[in-house]
Amino acid sequence: VQAGGVVESLMNAAVSDPNDTGVKVIVRMRPLNKKEIAEEATHVISKLSPNSLSLIDQQFTYDAVAGDDESQQAVFDMVGLPMVENCLAGFNSSIFAYGQTGSGKTHTMWGPMPDSGSELMATEERGVTPRVFEQLFSRIQQEERNNVDKQLRYQCRCSFLEIYNEQITDLLEPSQKNLMIREDTKTGVYVEGLSEEYVSNLEDVTRLLIRGLANRRVSSTAMNNESSRSHSVFTFVIESRSKSAAEGASSVRTSRMNLVDLAGSERQKQTGAAGERLKEAGNINKSLSQLGNVINILAEVAQNGKHRHIPYRDSRLTFLLQESLGGNAKLAMICAVSPASSCKTETLSTLRFAQRAKAMQNKAVVNEETANDVNLLREQIRQLKDELMRMK
Length: 392
Ligand code: ADP
Ligand code: MG
What we know:
Blueprint: H1 2-15, E1 23-29, H2 34-38, E2 45-49, E3 52-55, E4 58-61, E5 64-66, H3 72-88, E6 93-98, H4 105-109, H5 117-122, H6 128-146, E7 153-164, E8 167-170, E9 181-184, E10 188-191, E11 197-199, H7 202-222, H8 226-229, E12 231-243, E13 249-261, H9 275-304, H10 316-320, E14 330-337, H11 344-359, E15 368-372, H12 373-391
Parallel strand pairs: 1-5, 1-14, 6-13, 6-14
Antiparallel strand pairs: 2-3, 3-4, 7-8, 7-11, 7-12, 9-10, 12-13, 13-15
Helix pairs in contact: 3-6, 9-11
The structure holds adenosine-5'-diphosphate and magnesium ion.
């Protein structure tokens, strides 16, 4: 009887893992802040187990719950580490941070925001994104060393953009404002005119970061409260080439890693907002509420299997990141919450959003192409030309 049980469970595991929908949802709670402590705020949420929590008398279960004492390293180990491995294996991978303003999204994705990117890369408190960079380059080096016989080579390029008021700004080239999203039948969705820069080590990325963060700062002083109203998207495109055993055949894997710090999820207070400000609030709601809509529909489709039109194109955010939502990508959603009683309503809304995100299903596949040498060389020539153009 016992042996049968083991065989049966092994077979079930081999047939399908019902928990692997390609979507991983983590809830992270921050500690009470000084203001909340001064106001003698009480905790309304508590972690019950490594993957469950309670809000007053309601219980919620996710893939993981990070308590208020969890370190940045521990959160990276939960989320960043597996996503880096996915990406190196050829899967598109995205990490989103969702939650109300002040819940810890930026702290989780980036760390304490200093004046420059180099400070950010150095601090012990650096968040998921800087750690993803480190891990990517260290694993790439390791993989290349271990696969010399296959002539395995990686090539990475990055872009960094912000969506504010339904407008896309290139943070690496901020004169490029209001960029448009296009769709190509072969390469998928892309931002027209967005700069992409080749990076081969941590120093290269740090340089980009210094530039990008400086540009973000400029715009945030110009626009009131901008950072809580904008979405930032850092994208890594990773390409690897290797020779397979078969004579003359080479394969190319391409995958992207999106690191997304979303705008605050709280309902925009309409009090006193008028004209431009009201329009702004409406637009910000558009990208975030469209994210909510798309996730709701996808969760429904996953549950009842009925085909439905998914309105990705109705906002910049969902159009740009459509692959990550129900498509060809692995997704990790970090939902950040405050433990304070004063945030109870928003926390509940975030916890419900997290449940719906968990219900959707992605269909990630390894993006690999096998090519003969001539095609591969043509492609390499094209890329080198591109690179030359960029350097001019
Ligand atoms: P958001 O980006 O969601 O608006 P922030 O990441 O800016 O929120 O966090 C708000 C404040 O709370 C910041 O001062 C941040 O340093 C602090 N904070 C957030 N999460 C944590 C945490 N897990 N541990 C310690 N401090 C945190
Ligand atoms: Mg923030």
